[in-house]
Amino acid sequence: MYRPKTTLEQWRILQAVVDNGGYAHAAAALNKSQSSLNHAVAKLQNQLGVQLLEVRGRKAFLTEAGEVMLRRSRHLTQNVQELESLADNINQDWEPEITVALDLAYPKSHFYPVLKDFLPESRGSRLKLIDTVLTGTEEAVTQGWADIVIGGSVPKGYLGEPIAEVSFVAVSSPDHPLAQLDGPIEASELLQHLQLVIKDTSQTPNEKQGWLKSELRWTVSHFQTAIELVMQNMGFCWLPYHTVESHIESGQLVPLDIQGSSFRITNMFMIHPRPDTLGPGSRHLSDLILSHRQITPLNEQIEQQNNEASHGDDPRRT
């Protein structure tokens, strides 16, 4: 069995000497005597058989070998620190890993500020972000493989907190035959054209949402692929407006005026598949998601209306 020649403390002392510009400042930072630091570094070099530092005047400088060894040693001490933090978190029941299932339609731009706030408070927990679609999102709830799920529907028997609204719009290339029609497009006309749909991530997809009656359908895994195919004048597709807004503004895509369904609005919900066993890390992440949600809860709407009424701002009184 391999026995290390060196100790973590020796590497930490070497790092302190370099980071503080010499033995004197490192000794003050570590609250140790300068002679003890000199002895620790000298012993480290003897044990390795490699000169790590050379003293010029009153300052110590890294040798070329020392630069390489120091860089690698930082990974070592950081890994140990993270390992010890993980042990503390486990003792405090803070989850070592948190899995979040995000429906592909949910705007990731809403989630990035959440992650930015969560990172410094994550206590070393690993975060797994899994993209899901339709039935695959529901399965993340019903099968319980995710700690937090953000999706467009709440399966029976579960509760969900609304956090955002997503508008879906049918689009095509401006050169597509559907874009050339005058007036609202009837469903019978759609039947004659290629429809691009996003693949359900479930192993047993249940196609119960959306209009899926075209004689010819192509299935893709991501919105970006669908957008690129539509811009190539290959067909039409219902897509979240936030994914195509810039393309519509630039004229690369046009929204289709479809009889009875020019656009659809879907609420996005945050769902806890196993609320009774939700860990403190997942609970904190959930609180951050709610603090960044893009939709006003009903209780806040009612409170706002009551405040306006109490201040005489209720328009029904005029």
From TrEMBL:
The keyword Chaperone does not apply. One of its GO terms (molecular function) is DNA-binding transcription factor activity. Transmembrane segments: none annotated. Keywords: DNA-binding, Transcription, Transcription regulation. InterPro entries: LysR_HTH_N, LysR_subst-bd, WH-like_DNA-bd_sf, WH_DNA-bd_sf. Coiled coil: none annotated. Residues 6-63 form the HTH lysR-type domain. SUPFAM superfamilies: Periplasmic binding protein-like II, Winged helix' DNA-binding domain. Belongs to the LysR transcriptional regulatory family. This is Putative RuBisCO transcriptional regulator. It comes from Saliniradius amylolyticus.
